[in-house]
Design a protein that fits this description.
Helix content is 22%, strand content 33%. The chain is an alpha/beta fold and 175 residues long. The structure holds xanthosine-5'-monophosphate and magnesium ion. Xanthosine-5'-monophosphate binds next to strand 5, helix 3 and strand 8. It is an enzyme of class 2 (transferase).
C-alpha cells in the first residue's frame, strides 16, 4: 500500500525559498546571457516558478534524462530522452532540478554542458538530500535540505502520480 502521509515542505516555504533563489540568481547573472535548462519532468513546476522570479529576460529550454529504471535507486547511468533545442555555446547555463539525491545525474549533465562549450554551468535545485550524496558535485543554488525520505509533489512523482500537489509530501509504502 502506498500513501502520502505528511507534508514535509509547505506551499509557503517553497514560495519563499523560490523567491530568495530567484533574487540571488538575478543578482549573480545581471548583464549576462542566461539560459535556464529544466530537467523534466520533475523540474517543471520549480522551473515555472523560478523563471518568474528572475528580473531580466532569460532563455529557457527543457531536457529529459533517465537515470532511474524501474527501481527508485540511481543506476549512475543517464540516457538523454529529450535534448534541448538551443545552441548554448558561449551562454551561461543554469540547470534546474527538482531534487538532488546521489548527485550522479547532475554530475553527468554538468560535464555534458561543459563539453558543449557553455560559458559556465551551474546547478539550481529546490530540494536536496545531502545524506544520500555519492559524488561531490557543487550545488550553486540549493533550496531546501530534506532527510532521506521518498517525497512527491511540487513536480516530483511516485509512479507518475502526485506531481501536481502544491506541497512536498512524504510517501509511505507498506505491504
Ligand atoms: P540523483 O541520484 O542522480 O537523482 O541525484 C536525482 C533524481 O532522482 C529523483 N529522485 C526522486 N524522485 N522522489 C521523487 O519523486 C524522491 O524522493 C526522489 N529522490 C530522487 C529525482 O527525479 C531527481 O531528479
Ligand atoms: Mg523523477
Amino acid at each position: 500500500m502506498t500513501q502520502i502521509t505528511k507534508v514535509l515542505v509547505s506551499k509557503d516555504q517553497l514560495q519563499q525559498r523560490v523567491r530568495e533563489l530567484g533574487a540571488e540568481i538575478s543578482r549573480d547573472y545581471a548583464g549576462k546571457e542566461l539560459v535556464l535548462i529544466c530537467i523534466l519532468k520533475g523540474g517543471a513546476v520549480f522551473m515555472s516558478d523560478l523563471m518568474r522570479e528572475i528580473t531580466f529576460p532569460v532563455g529557457i529550454d527543457y531536457m529529459s534524462v533517465s537515470s532511474y529504471g524501474a527501481s527508485s535507486t540511481s543506476s549512475g547511468v543517464i540516457t538523454i530522452k529529450k535534448d534541448i533545442d538551443m545552441d548554448i555555446r558561449g551562454k551561461h547555463v543554469l540547470l534546474v532540478e527538482d531534487l538532488i539525491d546521489t548527485g550522479l545525474t547532475l554530475q553527468h549533465l554538468k560535464e555534458l554542458f561543459a563539453l558543449r562549450e557553455a560559458a559556465s554551468v551551474r546547478i539550481c535545485t529546490i530540494l536536496s538530500k545531502p545524506s544520500r550524496r555519492l559524488v561531490d558535485v557543487p550545488i550553486d543554488y540549493s533550496g531546501i535540505d530534506i532527510p532521506d525520505e521518498f517525497v512527491v509533489g511540487y513536480g516530483l512523482d511516485y509512479a507518475e502520480q502526485f506531481r501536481n500537489l502544491p506541497e512536498v509530501w512524504i510517501v509511505e509504502t507498506r505491504d
